[in-house]
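Lecture 7 notes: from sequence to structure.
We start with the chain below.
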Amino acid sequence: MTALRRIDIVFAVTLLAALLIRLHLATTEPYIHDEENTSIPLSQSISFAPGHLHLPLRGENHGALPAYVVKASSLLFGTTPLGYRLGHLILGLCTIALIFLLTRQWYGPVAAQWAAALLAFNEYYLPVSARATAQVPTLFFDVVAIYAFSRFLRTQRPANLYLAGLAVGLAVYCKESSALLLPVFFVALLATRHRRWLLSPHPYLACLVFAALLAPDLYWNMTTNRETARATYGTEPVGYATYRSHLQRIGGFGFSPYPAMFYARRPVMSLHLALTGTELRDETPEYHSIDPALGALLVGAVIVTALGKTRDDLQRFLLILFWGLFGFFTLIAKGDPPGRLDPVSWIWIEATMFPAVVLTGARLADAIGPRRIAVWIGAAGLLLYAIWTVG
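Predicted structure tokens for the same chain:
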């Protein structure tokens, strides 16, 4: 019990440090494009007043759910930068807590402590979870779905499948790419000892929960003419992006170096320039990518797990999740979407950091002897460097 308390205290300190750093960033960092052009102005257009009810379903490019988080945050905490961002900051901390709980249930408290720290302090999630953009609620609901599915793998309780379907539906109201979690779940069922559940109605009923939740958005997409409909909450009216607009981001089968940029942006851009003589355009330079050294640790742990001889059901699921998302976006060519949609972005694989941090936490916890001291010091140093560079 004493050891458990000690580990819990370490996690509490990790979460407190994550909170304090994010409070500093949320208070001092200037708004970026997605905040001042979408999340905040869309939240300001939301009205619950009788006679002036305005509850938008979508923003310019994605569902409007993140704007409701901003609205609730500004009502509770004020219309300052911190007030707009605090709701997202809280969801970010909840995401870290869920990763801690998931990892502890499967691999113990030490692995969970590392997984939480790797998520809390990496160069991508640390600053993005202190901002009022679509990323934070998307990733929160992604993790709720991943956590629910992991609980199903452990307990085989069908209710967890329904929770996963519900969470994916809510995530799609933030960013449409989260729908890719559904095929990942089905492939994971096939690849584990739980494939017999595919003969039961529960996985398919969970999909119906997802579809029922998404029905209003599906109807909107089917009935809205993008050529005439305009989003008017910003400084100028702009056309909406529909599901069809998002599908135009896919230019067919090909090869994209962008997913690798999430874990090593500068080296990938330099290598592309050396090999092709052309500069790889970064469509989202305002966001931090994970430092290449930390990225090597995370991806390396995924590779080591994939090459291992023994894998449990969660490891199989996490490997399918990581390589499924990474591989999908690597094998599609850049498309030509309308409006202000980015034709390609390394951010699209952001959800791969969840299996990466869990598997890395497990590998760090497994280290023994002098090797443990070396890898723990190295991992801690990478996280301290991330905090220093971002904060």
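Points to note: The beta strands are 230-231, 238-239, 250-253, 332-334. The radius of gyration is 21 Å.
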